[in-house]
Hints:
The chain is an alpha+beta fold. The chain folds into two domains: 4-131, Beta Polymerase, domain 2 (2-Layer Sandwich), CATH 3.30.460.80; 190-502, Cytochrome-c3 Hydrogenase, chain B, CATH 1.10.645.10. The chain contains 17 helices and 18 strands. The strands form six sheets. Strands 1-3-6-5-4 form a five-stranded mixed sheet. Strand 4 and strand 5 (54-61) form a beta hairpin. Helix 7 (235-263) runs antiparallel to helix 16 and helix 9 packs antiparallel against helix 14 (396-419). The relative contact order is 0.14.
Amino acid sequence: xxxxxxxxxxxxxxxxxxxxxRRTLSREDWTALVAALPAQPxxxxxxxxADTAQAHALFVNEDTGDIxxxxxxxxxxxxxxxxxxxxxxxxxxxxxxxxxxxSALGGTDDRPWLDHGxxxxxxxxxxxxxxxGPPPEPPEFLPVTGEDLHQVAVGPIHAxxxxxxxxxxxxxxxxxxxxxIRLGYTHKGTLSLMRSKSPRAAARFAARLSGDSTVAHSIAxxxxxxxxxxxxxxxxxxGLRGVMAEIERIANHLGDVGxxxxxxxxxxxxxxxxxxxxxxLRAAHAAFGHRLMMDAVVPGxxxxxxxxxxxxxxxxxxxxxxxxxxxxxxxxxxxxxLIDRVVGxxxxxxxxxxxxxxxxxxGRAAGRTGDARLHPGYxxxxxxxxVVPSFPEGDVDARVRIRFAEIAESIRLLRLLLQDLxxxxxxxxxxxLSGEGIGCAESFRGDVWHWLRLDNGQIASxxxxxxxxxxxxxxxxxxxxxxxxxxxxxxxxxxxxYSGVDL
Length: 503
């Protein structure tokens, strides 16, 4: 059950990271780890990042539940690549190269990722950033060979108010042979902006990494800070965090289902689901003073208590959703022209979802059952007996049905949380100490992970992993063999964050 790769990690030098010990490997042991990974498919790569001196990776042993952070020193500007053994590392290795200048030796893809050749410096997070590079060249895409192929370029500017991203389709007639996604257009330099700030000041940047999951990212950042400093948020703060997280989950799932149906020309669903999403956002504003609840979660606790009448506003909003949801599900399931578009479209297999350790609705629609609220778990969820839905089909329809099930479960959780909110303090004081911590939270997209290192109360290094890192590559796979006209359905059913991976 332990596995050869896990055993190599556990032999590393222990570093004082909380709540999970980080281990440092020599160059030789890291190379041995890469060689051992194919023999242990259950050791899932969650994320990869770096600082000026080391490359770091976070693994989860899905057989034992062990969470294994591991690092190796950067030697002569590089480190052995993980991408030959874990394909999810490829985009992350490109990100590390662009931000820190560290090369993934033997990696599967060394093209630029975030850096489009327009930054004032290359390698901006390095100790000594480089000068601005030459004028940018057109982006390089992977070659495709075959007869009667043509390319369709979409974006980065799209119709409507959505984030920018470039989609390069290679098609044979209407059938997509390959999709390649190019992102980085919303890069904000977030990691650099957070350095040398206190956690309370830097929390505003974490909250804005991906605005639609601001609560989840804020919880993960707060928990990483609290772990680094060895403090716990008060019980009432944890309860209020849970309330906010479930409101965020319901609102986003409602919006996603309406958008998916609208892309199949079923505007009635967009109108009704949009109505209920708006009701949830108004309830959030009434309860916490902001429609998205931005900056309501802070390291150490929460910024303020639930407002008078806030609980009643939330209960009224979820009662409205609960009253109409069964009829909306019935309409969805019996509208034949809609079902014809979503069933069997954009299929992701369980094998592929496992290879990328994909969570959230994308992973659960392909048969995976992971949920950070249960494992590793964090307050207030251990006592709530969270039910995680899962379907095996892996298509657009399964991703819609996962959302239906999660809306119903979040309504149940909200009622439990609101009827039994603990009393007491809203936040605890953060000491001005040094330390290193990892925090996680379950967003509506899946598991969010944050890591930071503090030096006398200020951030020395930080990284934030949005679940979309593991989902964008699967979108490329999901559209293969489908027609171009079905891409909006596939894209909306994933609803990956652009900003979350652009950092």
